Model the fold of this input.
Amino acid sequence: MRRLLQRACVLVLPLLLAACFGSDGGGSMMNDAGANAPQPFPDNFRTEALAYMRTYLNNPVGVRDGALADPVLRTVGGRPFYVACLRFTPRESDGSYKGMRERAIVYVNGRLDRILERSGDMCTGAVYAPFPELEKLSR
Done:
């Protein structure tokens, strides 16, 4: 009986610990108290987007059609945050190009917080400008 109880504890403990950490998806600042304050414009949005994309893409070399829209206030999770929209065509692992992707970049307290892969209507009407720095990325 004791052995069964030990095994049950070993199986249940990781689930309890995971519940303690929540399901925020990786340390987003969107739930911080400071996120409720008026949001400052993200002055370094281009630099931060570029740095993030270098790590976000499996292979940042050979990206085509890079375009970035200036951040605008959008409602995310019921609160206003600056959101910049990004378009690009990544190079696939086989060297081919399949299709253009669109991402919404959410900035909290003037810093890049997360990239939403499903931008939905957040990028509707976005005014894109060329983003050649994205096309020049290297490993």
